[in-house]
Amino acid sequence: MTPLLEVDQLKVEFSTKDGIVHAVDGVSLHIEQGKTLGLVGESGSGKSVTGLTVMGLTRGRGADIVGEARFDGRDLVSMGSDELRTLRGNDVAMIFQDPLSSLHPYYKIGRQLAEAYRTHHPKASRAEARDRSAEMLDLVGISDARARLDAYPHEFSGGMRQRTMIAMALINEPRLLIADEPTTALDVTVQAQILELISRLQDELGMAVIMITHDLGVVAELADDVAVMYAGRIVEYGPTETIFAAPQHPYTWGLLGSIPRLTTPRDEPLLPIPGRPPSLINRPSGCHFHPRCPYVQPSHREIDPMLEPIPGEPGKVACLLTVEERRALWARLRDGATPDEARAAVLGQVAPA
Amino acid sequence: MTERSQPKEKKSGMRRFQLAVIMLALCGLVVGLTACGSKDDGGGGGSSTPAKSTSSAAGGSGAISNGGGADVAPSKDQKRGGTLNVISAEGWEHLDPGQSYFQIDYVVVYATHRPLYSFTPTSPTKPVPDLAEGAPDISPDGKTVTVKLKQGLKWSPPLNRTITSDDVKYAFERDFNPNVPNGYATSYFPIVGSDKSKGGPISGIETPDDNTIVFHLTSDFGGTFAQALTLPGTAPVPREIAEKFDKKSPSKYDSDPTSQAFSGPYMIDSYSAGRQVTLVRNPNWDAKTDVRPAYADKIVWKAGGEPNVVARQVLNSPDLLMADGPPAPVLKTAYETKKDQLSISPLGSYYAALNTTVPPFDNVDLRRAVVAAADREAYLLARGGKLVGQVATHFIGPEIPGFKESGGAEGFGFDFLKNPRGDMAVATKYMKAAGYPSGKYTGNENVLIVGSNSDPGPKEMQIVQAGLEKLGFKTTIKAVPQQTMYSKFCGYVKAKVNVCPTAGWLEDFPDPYAMLYVPFSGKAIVPVNNSNWAELNDPAINDAMDKAAQITEQGPRIKAWAAVNKMIVAAAPAIPEIWSSNALVKGSQVKGVLDTWNDDWNLSFSSVG
Amino acid sequence: MGRYIIRRLLWVVFLLLVVSAVTFVIFYTLPSGDPAALRAGKSPDPSVIADIRHSLGLDRPVYVQYWLYLKQIVLHFDFGFSYQNSQPVRQQIFERLPATASLAIGAVVVWMLVALPIGVVSAVRSRSIVDRLSMGGALIAISAPVYWLALVALYLFSSDIGVIHIFKGAGSYVPFSDSPSQWFSSLLLPWLVLAASFAAFYARLLRSNLLETLSEDYIRTARAKGLSERTVIWRHAMRSAVTPIVTILGLDIGILLGGTILTETVFNIPGIGRLGYEAIINSDLSVIQGTVLFGAFFIVVANLLVDIAYAFLDPRVTYS
């Protein structure tokens, strides 16, 4: 089956006073009808820009976009603005992180929903749009939907607002929903509800979802596949079970290690990944992750790894260590060793090379 | 109130710099363009120095001939009919003949009311009987003055009745009413009982019949009183109309001037305070009884606006008459390119008063030294140069009888006034005579100089200061608004100000009494609103003035006053600065005829062409 | 909301009382003219001045005078009598109010018509040549003093003293009731001059508000919905960007109604500003008081109206 969305070597660069920002540096991914892809990474990894670029929302803001993003076979990158607008909010929709600031403070909820509907159904009457809006609010689990149409965003709770955003995004039954950190700004309890809602709606509407997040926990529940991004690139790609059971990239190990688990003893410290995300203007030489990698070798500072399939596994990884090395390291880490211990045991190095 | 977002205007450092540069450049432009554009309030008009008479060359006293090129003398070929259009930057203060005391007000009042006597463009220094039938009859002791009125003059509609001596009597009564009030009545009308009348009947005025009025004066003031009968406060006012207004405080008689009754060739038809007044012919005015030709059928006068703009509008028009003076830049333009639309005529004088009662200037030799050291030409330049007057050497200006008798422009020849740029040698001589052998002041007094803070006040104060510092004085300058200067400093005896360099005097009528008495007689000193800023109180001079005031015959009167002038100059109570001239501009076609004693247009003599 | 309005109205009254008291005090304590002495003329007898002072009621204690003044206003709506012009103050002010209002409101219309498109274009095409030229020009217009600009405008464009004869010259104002067409043509140049610096200010303000608004998240949402850029700008961005401008506009109108002295003077428009200025020069207390009170009234009421309007414009704002 042809993928619903195929992104092919997408590059997005911004010219700034300080230099060129390589926000997205050759990203390729695909997603099939009805499936969920998790796009994971720290802030600055390029995950949001990827999502925005697919929607065409980075156009004209000083961005230099190269590559393709084929939706149903049609390339969104080179498509004309007017044509793209007929798809945006219609076949492809996006929801964002902060629902309070993402809704217009001066207009009623009902009006904003109706606008989303009538933009793509220009012949619909006011009453129809209103009915549809109430229907959507109901669908996302907001009680007393019709009365709520006359409320203002600031009168809703955070959870209700995100539900409203979802309602607005789905009002035209898109085939692809891009969700950019939809739960980050919400309470933990509400997070679960929203994720569950997205999952349910996905089933009901047969929608594909790209879930952009920095939180692997979110991805574990929902995604069929996961792409891990670092410094504008995908460094690991594969089915969710594989990513969690047998991750291949040291960065992914770091992400997994830094998740608090219920089973982890209380007094054991979390292991954050040391260092900071790199500058997207002056990226490190060789493997962009090397300054933070506990297992770095001298050659890693010169050679830039490509994203390649892993022999014997369903996923892909961009790393210069061998498969065997990586499997061994992961085995140690999973058993509770620290990165230093794992490195000493597997690579025989007391300190990073 | 809950939150509300505020707009943020972010300026980067670069923007601030750009802003500063542009502001500097524009400030330069503004200063250049508007430097002298501010209202010239030295020329009378809106300040509290009322502007009075000047006489022109026709007065035969060697006066400056009209410095402008406009033909402002009456002629026989003037056009009759049409509408005169007058414009001014200032508005009127009072169009009530009893209250009006300003140059611009007079222009309207003299066209609509007839005082007992008038100065006219054809007789600028000798009063002509107006409401009166002939010259006043002054008793030999100077204490009784009898005036006979013309027969059969009528009031304007709707009053319509004949004007009687009782109307003149009431005019005087209300002049002394605190509700009105009149600004010069106490100076020039010393009538028996007037100090107690407070608006009621004055015992010293009798009206034996409808056409005769007799004034009993408290002293032998008759000779000067006769000259003062040209003031508008002597124009008749009908009791039955004005009385109810005069009962209110302040009197509302001039709130709506259209409700007045008029004796002159014109009536006020409409009035909007500070904006517009229109005059139409008074159908009951009898031309045969009046020297006024009254050419125009209608007069429309609009007031208000920016003086530069108004003056330019007048110069560019065929038909406008500007009733107040043009500001300096426009005056210059008119002088250079449109001289035939410009009239320059002498009016009043300016001097720097030295307080004779307070040290250090209570010493006459010290004062003479100061006068000798003064650069009087600098004052002329500060006020605008030769277009605005000439350097003075005494206190009677060229438009007033007595100028020639005082030596004309040269003056009496005192050594401390010989050099208009000052003479340090002479100054030193007087310093020594005053008790300072080094020629420089060594005392402790700090000289307080107070002047107006608007142009040319600050410049004049600096000139005085420079002159004083050359003689070793320590000085302090205080610049205040003009009104404040009059009421709280220079005109306020208790303030003990040493020098008031922006002193000026405009004669109320072209007679040397009106020029010299109030500024220099010790008897005229009052604690508040004082006009004898030098507080000169020399018994010999006071006496000489009183004697000269009572002379009725013109020739000896003028000679006596010239002698008084000499005594005053010798006492050095002030540095004579300039005899000033006033300029007026007019449109290219209109024929404006000048009242030299008021230095403004005479609407009853002007015509559209 | 009702209680809020009532509280604010009480505050208005209180403020006006304070303003009138302060004006009274300033006039009497700072050195300026003495109305009685001014009316008394040259070198008057002290008894004459005393008589005049008594007849004007100026010899009573300041607080008595103030009390009487207030009584007159509250009971008879009588603002006193002008010493200089011998006219009732109320009459003068009401006669001149239409002229000031004509000038102010007309200028508001002109400057908003100019500022809106310039502000929007500059924001939407920010950093382009159009943007830089407009904002640079705006900076100059803001910096130019009104008085100077008015004179220059007359010297260049008026039909009587100008170089190019386009507009009517100074002094040509007539009330609307006299001749609507002359009223209009006499106000064109004054409107343009008065509007110049305001238009520039509002264009810059709108531009910066709009730029900020365009970077808000809900604009991104609007675009994500597939709305056309024009809809995004006019229905979403402008709606937010304009709200603070309404506030400032209301206040500016209030201030202008109190009198636009410089413009009125140069163009000889008989308005309240000029009246107040002349009153100050002539130490005419009642007129000064009257114009100050009216000016304060307009500003305070404008403030109130703007706050109320804000509650309607921004649903997040509530008053209790």
Relevant terms:
heterotrimer, A: 353 residues, alpha/beta, B: alpha+beta, D-Maltodextrin-Binding Protein, domain 2, 2 domains, 5-stranded mixed beta sheet, 29% helix, globular
Question: How does this structure look, described?
Answer:
The complex is a heterotrimer of chains A (353), B (609) and C (320). By secondary structure, chain A is of the alpha/beta class. Among the domains of chain A are: 102-172, no CATH class; 241-347, no CATH class. Chain A is 35% helix and 21% strand. Chain A contains 13 helices and 12 strands. Chain A has helices spanning 47-55, 81-87, 99-102, 109-120, 126-139, 145-148, 158-170, 188-205, 216-222, 240-245, 250-257, 323-334, 339-347, and strands at 5-16, 19-31, 36-40, 63-71, 74-75, 92-95, 176-180, 208-213, 225-230, 233-239, 308-309, 316-317. In chain A, helix 4 (109-120) crosses helix 5 (126-139) and helix 4 (109-120) runs parallel beside helix 7. Chain B has 609 residues and is an alpha+beta fold. Chain B folds into 2 domains: 91-303, D-Maltodextrin-Binding Protein, domain 2 (3-Layer(aba) Sandwich); 346-582, Dipeptide-binding Protein, Domain 3 (Dipeptide-binding Protein, domain 3), CATH 3.10.105.10. In chain B, the strands form 6 sheets. Chain B has a 5-stranded mixed sheet with strand order 8-9-10-1-11, with helices on one face. Chain B is globular, with a radius of gyration of 26 Å. Chain B starts with 12 loop residues before the first helix and ends in an 8-residue tail after the last strand. Chain C is mainly alpha-helical and 320 residues long. The longest helix of chain C has 36 residues, at 89-124. Chain C folds into 2 domains: 2-89, no CATH class; 98-270, MetI-like fold (Orthogonal Bundle), CATH 1.10.3720. Chain C has helices at 2-29, 35-40, 46-55, 62-76, 89-124, 129-143, 146-157, 180-214, 217-224, 229-257, 261-267, 272-281, 285-313. Chain C contains 13 helices and no strands. Chain C is globular, with a radius of gyration of 24 Å. The model of chain C has no long low-confidence stretch (mean pLDDT 86). Chain C is 75% helix and 0% strand. Classes of the chains: A alpha/beta (353), B alpha+beta (609), C mainly alpha (320). Chains B and C meet through helix 1, helix 8 and helix 14 of B and helix 2, helix 3, helix 6, helix 7 and helix 8 of C.
